[in-house]
Amino acid sequence: MKPVNTEAPGSAAAPVDDDALRRFVEDVGMFMESTGVPRSAGRLVGWLLVCDPPEQSAQQLAEALGASSGGVSTNVRLLAQVGLVERVGLPDDRRTHYRIKRDAWSTSIADHLRLATAMRGFADEGLGLLAAADPSRRERLRQAQDYFAFMERELPALGRRYDEDRRSREGEAPPAPSDP
After folding, report:
1. Which residues fall within 8 angstroms of residue 113, CB to CB, at 6 or more apart?
2. Of the chain's two ends, which shows fewer C-beta atoms within 10 Å, N or C?
3. Where is region (Disordered) located (predicted)?
């Protein structure tokens, strides 16, 4: 990663240690790689979490990360698909810019719920297929079914609690109740 000026022009903020930022970006990349995400995509997330301004063009991303424009393009597409990054336009700039999506983290709860629902469905199907099989053969499916059924029950409440907490911290009014 190349040294970069992390403050927007005219910013009165104190300078940020480039070495510390590089370590942060690399740490995020390494962690995300351990979860199955390409390290370069993780580095991009790390940079978008700390850069100023928060909206960066592909050229700015490539320069800041020492990455190729093709690599940046591939990774922003991947991150947009999973809902972490969004494309934005800026006034008086024809280039596309990217930033961390505002609700990126809370939407991951909905993603986990979809995963839990699908996996519980597969466990149900597998148990049906092995209905007459020895119980020891069915045990792995039963454990998966129990876990994913639990997650299906708990994740919606977790998402609601997070939204309530976020609204409270940000001074935002709760949503209007919906009609029954």
Report:
1. 151, 152, 155, 156, 159
2. C
3. 159-180
